[in-house]
Amino acid sequence: MIVEHNIDVIKTADWVIDLGPEGGAGGGLVVAEGRPVDVAKVNGSYTGAAIAKSLGMKPRKTAAKASEKILSSIITTTANTNTHVLVEGATEHNLKSVDVEIPRDAMTVFCGPSGSGKSSLAMDTIYAEGQRRYVESLSSYARQFIGQVQKPKVERIEGLSPAVALEQKNLGHSPRSTVGTVTEIYDYLRILMARLGTMHCPDCQVPVGTQTPDQIVDKIMALPEGTRAMLMAPIEVQSGPASEDTWQSLRSTGYQRVRIDGVTTALDTAPMLDPRQRHEVQVVVDRIVVQESDRSRISDSIEQALSLGVGVLEVGFAEADVEEKLWKVVTHSQHLVCGECGRSFNNLTPHHFSFNSAVGWCPQCEGLGTQTGTNPAALIASPTATLLEGASLLWPSVDKSVSQWMMRAFSRQTRIPIDVPFESLTVSQRRILFHGTGERWIEVREGDREADTKTSPKQDVVVFRYQFKGFYPALAEAARLTPGLRGKLEQFVDEIDCSACDGSRLQEDAAAVRWRGHTIADIVHMPLIRLAEHITTWKLDKRERKIAGELVREITSRIHFLLDVGLDYLTLHRGAATLSGGEAQRIRLAAQLGSGLCGVLYVLDEPTIGLHPRDNQRLIGALHRLRDLGNTLLVVEHDHDVIASSDYLADFGPRAGRYGGRIVARGEPTKVLPVDQSVTAGYINGTKSIAIPEHRRPAFSANGSPYVQLLKVTGARENNLSGVDMQLPLGVLTAITGPSGSGKSSLIEGVLYPALARRLHRARVRPGRYEKLEGVRFIDKVIQVDQSPLGNSPTSNPATYTGVFDLIRQVFAELPEAVERRFTARTFSFNVAGGRCDTCEGSGQLKIEMHFLPDVWVPCEECDSRRYHPDVLEVKYHGASIADVLEMQCGEALELFAEHDKIARILQTICDVGLEYVTLGQSAPTLSGGEAQRVKLAAELARPMTGRTLYILDEPTTGLHFDDIEKLLGVLQRLVEMGNTVVVIEHNLDVIKCADWIIDMGPGAGVDGGKIVFEGTPEALAATCTNKKRGAVVSSTAPFLAEVLGQKVPASVKRKALPKTPKKTTTKKKTTAKKKASKPAAAEPATNGELQSDQASAAETNDSVHPWKVLGRRWHSLGKGFPADTEPEWPIELADMILKLLENVAGDNSLRFDAPDRVVVRPQGQQKNWAEVETKTPESLKVTLAGPHEAVDVEQLSKLGFNGAVQPAETEQAEVTLRLTELKHARSRKLKTFLKQHLQRTIET
């Protein structure tokens, strides 16, 4: 008798007794008994069903029981969670029992008015539940060290993947954290420099080689006679009892002394080494006095020490008045030594290139790389100018010939090029410029008079000599001699590069190591776009490829991911604490792209913040790649392009706060249902938009004379600004535009605002460098609203932040009931003791610590969540207590305090920016990003104005929906109507198009920016994108603004505004072939028949001369070969993407590059061509598919969303023509599915 579950055993039994039918209370009965075949026929027996399946018997069809129906529903639900994330009954914050199905492996966008519940569902429900489930999987011991999340208010979430949030949070405030360390690129560079870098002497800047024992003897004998020293051999000694064995071994070989941690001890009394500490041990080989008569003895001791120290010798110089631990110790090595000065070096490891450990950091700045001093940017006229063009402001005027002589002599003797831009100089070259050449005399010769020097005896004649002390020492000496200059230089005092390491943060041995002629400091100071181009010049040989091939691949891929998200202007040296929230989020996004994870749920909070429209497509492409890896993306976003490129849209509304919290419409972006209830669909399909002003306030007349007063900034040179002169018209709405990193914030927030605040309000801020500021008399106040966070304190709320609560408390304190009880305004504060509830300290709730579980907040029973003592609550204003006021919406509070002008003005401003639904006491952490931004804005706008106030706003549309932006623009326009000036730093095209005046920065970012590209009206800026003038600077903003203003922009013009991508190097052979074929390639393509004959004759002569045969797919991704040298109206990258897609569908080696203007696709083993791609038609990329009528799914073709026509032929064949014009067409999953299905049906028939 066997008790068994295994079917293989059961079906071979002679007799089976089946118990059931269920387990527990549902069982206890004999369901069936008999032979296995008989049991298999019994209905209701689970064992019988399993036996029947195993024996291949067909089960009898019976009516499903209730239990089976339940099981079936569970299986159906489970199957649904494979394709969707199911959320039921979400009630977090203002959500009203929201149910939603989010498609997996797709990009879903949550949009809607600010405060409508998007982040509550995405971040506080879905992501929080994913985090909570992960933390719960850990042990209770591990959970106590992790910040735990409370269970969100939701009934059920199924199909949830591991969740990662990419929020608008700073990467940290540590000065040691940089872009390089955050992205881990610097870690790979450390290994690369340690393994393949060439060591250089920091003093002589020559490569380091090895030295012989005789050379070491000569160096020691060259010391002053009578020098007392110890010759020591450094050794590694194991701690603990093993150290005593080492002492015994050394004694047996004749040694008498050992130096442990800087103290010399006799071997007989040497202590056992403490295993808990790290020790430095040197064996004292000899104690010497340098004199010629002892040369033989010293030579023998040196050889003995080098043998014991494995090629390393340490010389300790005895000083009678100094403690032995502080004696100077010089290391000599047989391994590494400078050939000129004789300095010895140790082998370097990756730890020596780390500025976060004592092994590698600079001893003066301890790895921070900065010190207080004169800002070097103040001494440079333009970083893009050469020294010969006057880049240095301290060098004598280069217009004078003597100054040029001196500069050529300086360049000849220091090897610093004077004909390259200052920004291209290496760190060591800049160090010489800033710190000088010491006591060295620089000789100016006759040959230095001319630029083209020729060697002759006459030109070697010395005309005069001078010493170059360096910019910093010269400035310090001038300030010492001229007291008046000292005060002027105070404005240039800033955090500057450390004088010891020049900002490299490393000790000098590691900082001098070079790879391909550059130190690690040179590499990390390059903008990423330039660094990507520089890395392509690294040609590795076989040995280098084996050592660093993977390192270089990893560095390259991570840099390209950063370029893909629009961060090409950053450097790896940039401090993480200086990055904006948007930049930090995009760095995290690039890191996730590089990780290559799949099956992850990514939650992103407005990734387009701080991003110029030109970079949107690159960001969207990065998001799509993350999705195509097999991840689910959940994006909270208001940007039109991101919403339109998503796979699924959930529209929240209908309004914000308590009037929102529902999903009013959902579906694909172009098919949102119900459309009439959606608050976003109208802006996506074009039926609704923010109106363009009918009339703009004029600033200048047609002949250029101003209609208004001007605020002029001359010679601004902060950060990347290159001597910018700006004219800001007063009394109008001005938008400052340009790519991220082009210098907008440097000009407005770095120069203009600090300069005005210093003059008008005596603020203690340091303005950036500028020459002159004019027109200050026309304004009497400046107010700035920046991107700083509102704060996460639970006691902070809109009432306290805007200051209206102070006024309200004063009103309550003046009421007769309060005066009678001697209550003051302080009594009505919930932040200080006196009137607040002592139990909950004014918060209205209590925190209960749950140790291994997340903390729980419960209502305070003492005050019933009212925050105050009962006697304080008895004081009422028009029937409302102070607690009632805090629970009021701003609109209701405005009616209550209408008689108090100061309170009413602040509350009216809050309502004007669209926050009438927010309660005065709502905790700051519970406000959405857009709500917090508008609370800050209301606090500043509510300040008393004079009609001559300048308002500076940095991206005020952050977190705002289209409807919210319309309300914001109304407030800004009213401010201007009252005579004030509003300056907005903005990327949002809806704000830009409504401005009266635009100042566009650019043309690029970083070193490619820093200039004013355009000043004028939006219409004038849009008109520049069609400027045919040769050499005209292209504005990155113009083509996108022109589209918003309703103008048609050619694709070629739009592409010029896009950021440059690193050039890929090609072989010399390919370049030659390309040049030879450039003429015929530029000619107009012939007809199909002519092409075939031409190709046949060309094949007979020489195939290699045709560039389309040599370059293959790359030829069709070049902007050449179009009729009459026209430029395509579609992105040229589209051709490569479509060819990759077709090759992926049809298989490897399926592409035929037989013609210059088209590519034929023929799958392996097939006789006929399946597809043809015409790549040189200017209007569109034309794809023609050939196959039977049955291969064409007309319904699926109509869903592709772009031009596609079926042309039936007389035979059984039919052609499908697709005209592609946008990159999103190539990324369409529907297109890929259609192509696969068409090819499969074509092959089958």
TrEMBL record:
<keyword id="KW-0067">ATP-binding</keyword>
<feature type="region of interest" description="Disordered">
    <location>
        <begin position="1053"/>
        <end position="1104"/>
    </location>
</feature>
<keyword id="KW-0547">Nucleotide-binding</keyword>
<dbReference type="GO" id="GO:0005737">
    <property type="term" value="C:cytoplasm"/>
</dbReference>
<dbReference type="GO" id="GO:0003677">
    <property type="term" value="F:DNA binding"/>
</dbReference>
<keyword id="KW-0963">Cytoplasm</keyword>
<feature type="domain" description="ABC transporter">
    <location>
        <begin position="705"/>
        <end position="1034"/>
    </location>
</feature>
<keyword id="KW-0479">Metal-binding</keyword>
<feature type="compositionally biased region" description="Basic residues">
    <location>
        <begin position="1053"/>
        <end position="1078"/>
    </location>
</feature>
<keyword id="KW-0228">DNA excision</keyword>
<dbReference type="InterPro" id="IPR027417">
    <property type="entry name" value="P-loop_NTPase"/>
</dbReference>
<dbReference type="InterPro" id="IPR013815">
    <property type="entry name" value="ATP_grasp_subdomain_1"/>
</dbReference>
<keyword id="KW-0677">Repeat</keyword>
<dbReference type="Pfam" id="PF17755">
    <property type="entry name" value="UvrA_DNA-bind"/>
</dbReference>
<dbReference type="GO" id="GO:0006289">
    <property type="term" value="P:nucleotide-excision repair"/>
</dbReference>
<comment type="similarity">
    <text>Belongs to the ABC transporter superfamily. UvrA family.</text>
</comment>
<dbReference type="InterPro" id="IPR003439">
    <property type="entry name" value="ABC_transporter-like_ATP-bd"/>
</dbReference>
<dbReference type="InterPro" id="IPR004602">
    <property type="entry name" value="UvrA"/>
</dbReference>
<dbReference type="InterPro" id="IPR041552">
    <property type="entry name" value="UvrA_DNA-bd"/>
</dbReference>
<protein>
    <recommendedName>
        <fullName>UvrABC system protein A</fullName>
    </recommendedName>
</protein>
<keyword id="KW-0238">DNA-binding</keyword>
<dbReference type="InterPro" id="IPR041102">
    <property type="entry name" value="UvrA_inter"/>
</dbReference>
<keyword id="KW-0863">Zinc-finger</keyword>
<keyword id="KW-0862">Zinc</keyword>
<dbReference type="GO" id="GO:0004518">
    <property type="term" value="F:nuclease activity"/>
</dbReference>
<dbReference type="GO" id="GO:0009380">
    <property type="term" value="C:excinuclease repair complex"/>
</dbReference>
<keyword id="KW-0234">DNA repair</keyword>
<dbReference type="GO" id="GO:0005524">
    <property type="term" value="F:ATP binding"/>
</dbReference>
<dbReference type="InterPro" id="IPR017871">
    <property type="entry name" value="ABC_transporter-like_CS"/>
</dbReference>
<feature type="compositionally biased region" description="Polar residues">
    <location>
        <begin position="1089"/>
        <end position="1104"/>
    </location>
</feature>
<keyword id="KW-0267">Excision nuclease</keyword>
<dbReference type="GO" id="GO:0008270">
    <property type="term" value="F:zinc ion binding"/>
</dbReference>
<dbReference type="Pfam" id="PF17760">
    <property type="entry name" value="UvrA_inter"/>
</dbReference>
<keyword id="KW-0227">DNA damage</keyword>
<dbReference type="GO" id="GO:0016887">
    <property type="term" value="F:ATP hydrolysis activity"/>
</dbReference>
